[in-house]
Structure formats: structure tokens, C-alpha cells
Predict the structure.
Amino acid sequence: MNQSTLTNTALTILRVAVGFIFAAHGLQKFIEFTIPGTQAAFAQMGVPAAQIVAPVVATLELLGGIALIAGVLARVFAALLVLDMLGALVVVHAPAGIFVEKGGFEFVLALAAAALAIVLTGAGRFSADATLFGGRGSKLSVLA
């Protein structure tokens, strides 16, 4: 394997793994916690406008995760997910320190960093973005 193939394989692995985690957390907010339960939890955690933010975050994490898995508009969704995780870090997790077992920010920081890597690199060659937007002369090649 050459470096380009290894890099694209690594991007695919990263994108699919991170997408799966986000999609699972979004689905959990809908099915297990429910949107009213998520709204209540967000309000208790001090999230501003929890009634609005909870369904938005649940939808973003579910659809954004699926988009990352497929590599569709990966940079756009990854950027939104970075903002989601930075919000969670600052509003909820930072006061608890780094370690997740104490409610800390290590997990959301790792997800934010992984999503930021996708923003910076794109979805890679093995993605819908590369197929849709990766052609030479494409005006939307920045999305690939």
C-alpha cells in the first residue's frame, strides 16, 4: 500500500468509527432517553435553551453520524459536531476535570479532535463526497 492509500484507509476508519459513535449517541437521545428526558437532563446540566438544544443536538448527532459513516458532506457535519462537542465540553464537562468517570471532558475532547481532523482533511477517497465532489474542476471540490 502506498501512503495515499494508507491515508485514505485511515480516514475511512476514523470517519466510520466516529460516525458510529455520534449516530449511536444521537439515537440514544431519541430512543432510550427520549427527547423530553434529554431536555430535562440538559436543563439540569445547565445547558441554555435546553428545550431547543436537546432535539437539535440529538438530530445533529444521529444524522451527522450517519453522514460521516457514508462520507456525505463530511466536512460540514464534522464542523457542526466539533461545535457540539466544544459546547458540551465548556458547558457541562470542563468543571468536572478531564476524567470521564467523574463527568470530565476526555471523551468529548477526543470526539471533537477526531471530528476536527475530518474537517481539515475531508472524508477521503473512499467516500460519497469524493465521488460527488472530487472531480477535477468541480466547483464543490472543497467538500471532497
Q: What stands out?
A: Residues 33 and 41 are 9 Å apart (CA to CA). The helical segments are 3-31, 35-45, 50-70, 74-93, 106-121, 128-133. The mean pLDDT is 95.
